[in-house]
Amino acid sequence: MGSVDLITSSLNSIREISDHIAGAILYVDAGCLEAFQLIGAFPLLLELGVRAICSLENLSLLDAIVDWNTSLAEPATKIVIITSRLLSDAHRYILRCLITHRTVLHCAVFTSISEIAHSALIDSPLGPDAFHEYHSLLLQDYEEIVKRHEKEGLLTHRNSEHIQSPDSQNTKLSSEDNIWSGLDTSYANDPNIEASPSKRNFYADESVSKEDGGARLSISVNHFPMIICPISTRVFVLPSEGTVAESRLSNDNEESLSPGLPAISTGLPFDGEDVPPGAILTAHFLYHLADKMDLKMEIFSLGDTSKIIGKMLTDMSSLYDVSRRSKMSAGLLLIDRTVDLLTPCCHGDSFLDRLLSSLPRRERNSPAQVKSAQSSSDHSPVTVLRPPLDIKIPFDSILSKEGTEKRSDQIHESIIAFISGWNSGQPESDVAELANSNKLNSELGTLNGSFLSNYRGASYLEALLDRGAKDGALLIKKWLLEALQSEKLSMNSKARLGITSASELRAMVKKLARDQNSLIRNRGIIQLVLATEIALSEPHSSRWDAFVSAEKILSVSSSDTSQSLSSQIRDFINTSILVRSSQQDKMVGSSEGLLNFQDALLLSTIGYILAGENFPTAVSTGPFSWEEEHALKEAVVEAILERPSSAKLRFLHGLENDLEANSRKDDEKMKMLLRRFLMILMINGVVGMMMRRIIRMNNHTSRNPVLKEGLTALSKLGSDTYSRKGLLYKLLSALLAKYDIPGLEYHSSAVGRFFKTGFGRFGLGQAKPSFGDQSVLFIFVVGGINSLEVREAMEAISENSRPDVELILSGTTLLTPDDMFNLMLGSSDSMSLQLK
């Protein structure tokens, strides 16, 4: 059997649909685009004959005239749509594609959500034959819209209309607003299309034409499971804007910390109807991923949500696994993120973690554009907004030289002239407004993109995954020096030695980007260098170091007394009142301190988790005395009153205007005192709820005695260095050493169940396999994995002398400490769809 390679498997999956995409306009949604960027799929797509790659959510009439393949002179007759969403969620966009491209005769729709998964969701509008049902629905909706707009004179017959050139296309742009207006206000945005397709006749004639004798539109609906975001050949996460990652992992109950995290494990079984949609979709995704990669899995789980996913995987294997082809044996370990909340909250020694925490990300699609698959249920729709892996790099900083200002003005004028030409029918005032907009200037200075997992044969990210902060920066510097040498550029001899600094990297990378050809040839390493420069510059470097120091202080205090720990947490909160918010720091370019109020709340969460490990208490109570809890609560209330900007926190949603009014000093004294008193009463209530949520984090393992026993046993293994590692390192080390872990559940494979129910009656039962005995170890963290955990897991494999083991690490998303804060206590903006 060959070795596992996630990037190669993803590219091979694209090759398998080459017949569909050759000569087609390819539409991908945001989740699919994120995945394709990471695997470097665009050169392959061009090689396979794709005419153009366009955004599914932001399609335009101009997409029809974009052509990467100049040998194709005729208008496109087929489109391919690849989505990481449910078909019902992508339906409006797919419908718009068909209406926009009126010369298209063939449309192939690929979704990463399997047909069985579509029907498995309780609130799904599609049934067991989901793909066939959607095929009929799409044809019927398309035909009705075409007929409606033909009557209105907005559309003409498919065969009589061709897109010849930009000039001919330009004459049609004036009607674009009318077309979209008709779609937006009537059928394409009708919620009944997505929420209640079952009311339609799915089994109508599948060969539909607009008029008798007209060309027929051919549509196919297919499954495309390999939409993943590989960070390396053996580490991946799910697309941030795909349905699987966005679906809730826990229901709204006492055990839930956040819809984006599994519920706290209690050891109690799930009711069939209470299984969160995220768990269902994750199980189906993992089953089809393993099947695509020819893996035969022995399944283990740790945590309640992982347990139900493991059970569903086992059931699917026994029902649907009828393939006779040879498969590689693998052990799959599912772990609930809530079993270990501490590791992703802390700022560990991981270069990639530090890098991602410092970089700005691409803005997500507007939440208003995202419709929940559960929107038809009685519960409030919940969509977990995961941070995209697409990052922003300020390339303008390395292009500054004499004449840059003049060149930038020329670029700006050229862009305005181009837009003016396409929008000649618009008023001149609109063009003038665009010319003066700051947004255009801002976009010219940054490039969106992602760190390519495999850039020109160099696996940069894979090499950085197991590096600490200092080693990672030195490795980046080494690559930069090699690139300079390859370009035959002179280098300062001092640049070869010493600690890497942001200013040193800036000077070297500007030399490498001296001209356009060198910039293009070395864009991969230049991107990494610029990202490293940001991480090493202020205030990012000082803020990270301040977190590291603060977390060490909390760790030391937690080994002392609860009074010492609570006092330290209170000091962090009080000190944060003197610190400006992060946005204010960026505006003024300086900082009065390092850690703000939100940072102090994250440190408070870390302190409570440490207290739960060192001062175990009853499930319903916190680790501190009543007096200590009251003092902490008062400190938080006072910080909120002093910092109205903290109103963006999720637990303060609805109090923003009151907090802003309270900060004004223009009222009479008595009125100000009364308003402050009322605010204290309101804030006390919401802060009390927030504190109870943090206490649940403190007791996140206490509700399941068996699980607690297993985690306690893990903490006692190894040396002091071992004790400072995360749970994943400890668990993997123990399993490789063949220890039994209480709470770790084994789910019988299909073969094992056969022996248990068949030959097992005659004493031929199958022994329980060991996870550590498998040649391929596949670990999936439900709720998200952290870069530090990836590094430590690699260390565990190396320290246990198992070079024969192939380790695959994955999770729902790639978590940084700031991401964990947003999941548990984050801003109302980033979690807006989770609020009732």
Automatic annotation (TrEMBL):
Q: What is this protein called?
A: Sec1 family domain-containing protein MIP3
Organism's domain of life?
Eukaryota
Q: Where are the transmembrane segments?
A: 673-691
Q: Which organism is it from?
A: Ananas comosus var. bracteatus (red pineapple)
Q: Which GO terms describe its biological process?
A: vesicle-mediated transport
Q: Which InterPro entries match?
A: Sec1-like, Sec1-like_dom2, Sec1-like_sf
Q: SUPFAM superfamilies per the record?
A: Sec1/munc18-like (SM) proteins
What ranges does the record give for the region Disordered, renumbered to this chain?
363-385
* Regions of compositional bias (Polar residues) in chain numbering: 366-380
Keywords of the record, alphabetical order, are: Membrane, Transmembrane, Transmembrane helix
Carries keyword Phosphoprotein? no
Family per record:
Belongs to the STXBP/unc-18/SEC1 family.
